[in-house]
Structures
1.
Amino acid sequence: MALTLHAADERMKVLLAVSKHGHCLNHLLHQWHAGELPVDVVGVVSNHEDLRRMVDWYGIPFHHLPMSEGKPAQEARILEAIAARDVKVVGATAHCVTGDLDEGPIIEQETQRVAHSASVETFVRIGKDIESVVLARAVRWHAEHRVMLNGLRTVVF
């Protein structure tokens, strides 16, 4: 077992990953800017340019990482951004399929904390584990007819 102690006032560095819809990003950035969210937002990564203007307004680095190079290349660039900003959380999301990549209603998501000293290989391994679990849950719930579409959202029973 390993134990790490942190000062109560130590703020976590956070790199936010977004797609096209900005409502959650706007909410997080507003809370952070107002001093209501005890984190240091060090940047935003997105596969679309849509939210660059919002991020620029807050004076935060925006990293456009399009899917045009293919998913493995994009994931490698995201991991480079994570490694350079000391991010301590990795996660995965399972969506309903739509015509737009990663734009469908969310069925399941999960994150896991990682040590600041984790290697890129560790991030990849943990990311793959989380993706596998999240996808298996989403498929199981769908097969059990527990996922109901409600407009652009899902309800899981």
2.
Amino acid sequence: MQHPRSFRRSALLALSLLSACAAADPSGRADASTQGWDSGRAAAFAPFLIGRVASMEGDFTTSANEMLRALSHDPNNPVLRQQAFLAALLAGRPEAVRIAAELPNNQAARLLLGNADAKAGHWQAAEQEFAGLPKQGLIQVLQPLLVAWTQFGGGHTDRALATLQPLVDSQQFRAVYAFHAGMIADLAGREPEAGRLYGIAQQAFGAPNLDVSRAIASWQARN
């Protein structure tokens, strides 16, 4: 099944928002210490320090420029690689994707590569990236959502809903999973299924939820 372009944009938007939440998880942050740093490499150390100061001052553009310059002087330094990636990511620099490929154990790097694959239409590759994320912290909650949205983006609505259904049937976070499953069913034009899932989300949230209420109101208006 081929999705209209607007459906894929919806999947990309959902992935971007979920990835941003996951990247903010403290358990997945890169180590910002200088362990393993060889301070004798003066050519790299000076821009490294400038980049760190710029980052602390919120100047992510300068931080990325200096960290990337430092990495160019000492490309095999693991501390520099981590810091250059983080600086490039915060500054929105394209180099972040290249460096991410060299950081297999960095959670934010895996999220960035998955998003890059999805934007390029490589949905299966994106699914594999998200499926391989470590199940810890906030990622443990968000991972099924990331996987389901990549499956939907790739045109596999049934697989996406099947990924979320066991979690909809569970008690923990079922409101969140039911809401996302409802949006996927809604975008796929499966009105009865969307209505059922939106109803579960509304009931599970308990207190009024603006996003759920807006989605259900939209669904009711269209049906």
3.
Amino acid sequence: MKLHTIFLTSNVILNGLFISAANAADVAEVPAPKPSNTLSLEFSPEWKTSDGSVADDYLKFGYSHSFDNNIVWGAAFQYAWRPDSTSVDQLETSLGYKLKAGAFTFTPSALVGYGFGDHPNINHLAKTDAEAYYAFVLAADFKIDDHWTWNIVNARYRNAFDTTWITPKVSTGITYKFDSTNAIYANVGYAWKDAGDGKGLLGDKWNVVLGYKLSF
């Protein structure tokens, strides 16, 4: 009887050890959660399409949060300064949805913004005036591998609520991820403008962007 009891006790202990080891292995194999928050900082010079002169330079700070249902909310602040010593500030908030198809990701979004400063670059406004605006954006990206992503196109339609400020823009670029946290990106863009002055939609500016993203 004693030997039988010892044998049963040993089995229970060994089974407990195996189960504990298996549970520990399961815990160790659980992947780390994907980052859902991203901070970004980008710098860009912009040139006039009419004569190639500098239109302005800007710094843009951004934040976005990705929800589990693929909805993405974002906010941004942009400060631009011009050669004539005027400046423009823009505050924006956006809401989008990520659609994934293999290596492709499509993100339609809508945003509202508010421009203020010396001159928000809207035709009829005088200095210190401000203007609210809206935009619709479609981004298409292709993941080449774990590090490289081709930002195929980012297409924007933008207009002011109370006046004509039709400013569509298209850009294309590339993003390089060092790891799940750090990434750098670059793109080139071209914008048009219809300021409501009867001239219609004309080439306005082109720019080059360099940026950094921190995800957590």
4.
Amino acid sequence: MIPIGKIVTPIGKIVTWKRNLKRRKGLQNKDFTILSSNCAGGVIYHDLGLQFKSPTINLWFKPKDYLKFISNLNKYLSMDLVEETETALGYPVGLLGDIHLYFFHYRTFEDAKNKWNSRKKRINKDNIYVIFTDRDGFDDEDFQNFLALPYKHKILLAGDKKYSSKYTKIISKDLENGHLGDIFAVRNRFTGKRLLDEFDYVSFLNNRC
């Protein structure tokens, strides 16, 4: 198997470009907000060449915090984002009331907060898509709470078949303790494919799955 994170070849870059071009041509729904528990939303917006209409970009939540956020969206979006100063993770961490936001891809909290505040103004609350991933401590209780979420368009990307449902996409490759690991790392340097590519997110956004 090609080592995870292997640099994509020039041919792989062309294949990836063609794959994304096909996705962009097939996308019919272009004014939507993806609220994701990790970087999936941002990666999908990038693949599709669309503006980020979501604040959940370049960050991740612990599962129970994400479920709190998505279940009480207006409440948490109205809160001021403040910095969690007692952390040694090497990247900024923010607090919205009682939940933590881990800004893994930001250098400073100020930058993270500015992006959060500007992007949350773009949310289309009439066209929200929820993308959850079974990692970072995800458990059976989280699965049941996910199923109970009052969102028409929601998907769980999971590695364990016990989480199968009409709202689940099972990706049973390269698991970490039965759960998905890094779904964004390149698995094949000649095609540029990632585990995320197992999920037909264009059909999901077009309301076909």
